[in-house]
């Protein structure tokens, strides 16, 4: 075989390896709601490991996500403090919006 065919084969395998190695994350808008629910449930159930695991399991079912997606999303935001801060500001705004809506209901 010609050398360029080998290069093409290696490139195809490299791309496939990269694509399968990438962890999928929860979309930000969904994760904002997920995180709000997480904080509220922690306030109710506690912050110990057993409670946190129960909360995450319940939220994974509610939002149709996996533990790996949750962990990949946390890793993504935790890796960059500016990204985390922007995300957290969105969480605060959404939580305030939900609180206002809840206060309007009789």
Notes on the structure:
With 106 residues, the protein is an all-alpha fold. It has five helices and no strands. The protein has helices spanning 3-21, 28-45, 49-63, 67-78, 81-104. α2 (28-45) runs antiparallel to α3 and α2 crosses α5 (81-104). The radius of gyration is 20 Å and the shape is elongated. The model is unreliable at 16-21 (pLDDT under 50).
Please describe the structure with a list of short key phrases separated by commas or semicolons.
5 helices; 106 residues; single chain
Characterize the main sheet.
none
Provide the structure class: mainly alpha
Shape, per Cα inertia axes: elongated
Given the structure, what is the number of helices?
5
Order of secondary-structure elements: HHHHH
Q: State the share of residues found in helices, binned by percent.
A: over 70%
Give Rg in angstroms. Answer: 20 Å
Instruction: Let me know the average pLDDT.
Output: 84
- Residue stretches low in confidence (pLDDT < 50, at least 5 long) are 16-21
N- to C-terminal distance:
76 Å
**Would you report the number of β strands?**
0
- In terms of DSSP E residues, the strand content is under 5%
Q: In a nutshell, what does this entry contain?
A:
This protein has 106 residues and is mostly helical.
SSE arrangement:
Layout: H1 3-21, H2 28-45, H3 49-63, H4 67-78, H5 81-104
Helix pairs in contact: 2-3, 2-5
């Amino acid at each position: 075989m010609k050398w360029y065919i080998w290069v093409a084969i290696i490139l195809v395998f490299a791309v496939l390896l990269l694509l399968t190695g990438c962890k999928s994350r929860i979309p930000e808008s969904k994760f904002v709601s997920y995180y709000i629910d997480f904080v509220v449930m922690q306030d109710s159930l506690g912050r110990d490991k057993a409670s946190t695991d129960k909360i995450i399991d319940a939220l994974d079912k509610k939002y149709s996500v996996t533990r790996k997606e949750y962990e990949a999303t946390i890793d993504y935001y935790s890796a960059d403090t500016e990204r985390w801060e922007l995300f957290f500001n969105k969480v605060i705004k959404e939580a305030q919006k939900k609180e206002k809506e809840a206060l309007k209901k009789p």
